[in-house]
Amino acid sequence: xxxxxxxxxxxxxxxxxxxxxxxxxxxxxxxxxxxxxxxxxxxxxxxxxxxxxxxxxxxxxxxxxxxxxxxxxxxxxxxxxxxxxxxxxxxxxxxxxxxxxxxxxxxxxxxxxxxxxxxxxxxxxxxxxxxxxxxxxxxxxxxxxxxxxxxxxxxxxxxxxxxxxxxxxxxxxxxxxxxxxxxxxxxxxxx
Length: 191
Description:
Layout: H1 2-22, H2 27-41, E1 98-100, E2 118-120, E3 138-140, H3 178-181
Parallel strand pairs: 1-2, 2-3
């Protein structure tokens, strides 16, 4: 009987020693790798990007389907033609962000700050939009209304005058420093 216990002990000790290797990486490391993935590949569907700093990021055409961007700072970001279908942007900061033909279908936009943002032909079908901040925002051909009712029947929908309907995308996207995304310089876009 004693031999059986000793025979099991080395196998059990190896299992216990291997457990830390199988543990999940810390959330901070996971978010950092998600930011790198987004900035390098321009896609990160289903990623956790909550509370990350993406100020001035060029996310034109990015795939962020079902991503968690809760509280993310996207101020000044270019989100032209980005796919944010079913994304969670609760309390995100999109001050001066540029959204043209952006897809926000079934997205959670509660408490989003769109101050001075530009929204052109943005699809918000089925999106939750409670407590939006649209102060100074330019909203054209995007079904967002002041009172939360039917935007087509709203007495004063948020539609900017025709003279300011011209598109004004960010002139020069801000790329993060190379040491932040930890990739060889030849891979980074030219600044």
